[in-house]
Amino acid sequence: MFTMENPLQHFELHEGYACYRPVGVVSLREAEQLVSQSIACAREQGIPRLLVNTTQLTGFDSLSITERYYFTYEMASQAGGMVKVAGVTLPERIPSQKFGATVGFNIGFKIETFTSEDQALLWLLAEE
C-alpha cells in the first residue's frame, strides 16, 4: 500500500531499464508526485529507461487536458532529457489523441502511454 514514508517501494531495477508499479488509493496530486519521484529517481541513478505502471493506483479521475499538459511538463522536468518513459495505465485514462505524448514530443521528452506492459516494454527497449 502507498505510504509517504517510502513512496518508491515499488521501484525495481531490471536489465536495461527500471520499473515502477505503485499501488494504493491516492489523490491525483499524490499520483503525479509518485510518478515524478520515480522519474527523478531513475535520472539520479543514471537509468535511461523507465516503465511506470499506474493501473493499481485508484482514487482519482482521468486528467483534464490542462492537468495533462502541466503533468507532462513536470515529468519532462524530472527526466531532464535523460529518461525515456513508457507509461501503462487503464484504457479509460488514455485520451484518443494521446495529448501527453504529443506535448512530450514537442518539448523533447520521450514518453508514450500503453494499456499493457508488453507493448510498453517493446517501445521502451526499442533502439532509436
What does this structure look like?
The protein has a five-stranded mixed beta sheet, sandwiched between helices. A two-stranded parallel sheet has the order 3-5. By secondary structure, it is an alpha/beta fold. β1 and β2 form a beta hairpin. About 30% of the residues are buried. It contains four helices and seven strands, in the order βββαββαβαβα. Helix content is about 40%, strand content about 20%. The protein is globular and about 35 Å long. The protein has a single domain, classed as Transcription Regulator spoIIAA, CATH 3.30.750.24. α1 runs parallel beside α2 and α2 crosses α3.
What topology does this entry show?
Blueprint: E1 11-14, E2 17-20, E3 24-25, H1 28-44, E4 49-53, E5 57-58, H2 65-79, E6 84-88, H3 99-106, E7 111-114, H4 117-125
Parallel strand pairs: 2-4, 3-5, 4-6, 6-7
Antiparallel strand pairs: 1-2
Summarize the structure.
The protein is 38% helix and 20% strand.
Overall domain count: 1
Overall structural class, as computed from helix and strand content, comes to alpha/beta
Biggest sheet overview = 5 strands, mixed
**Overall average pLDDT:** 89
Order of helices and strands: EEEHEEHEHEH
Which terms would index this structure?
20% strand; 128 residues; disordered N terminus; two-stranded parallel ribbon; globular; 4 helices; alpha/beta; Transcription Regulator spoIIAA
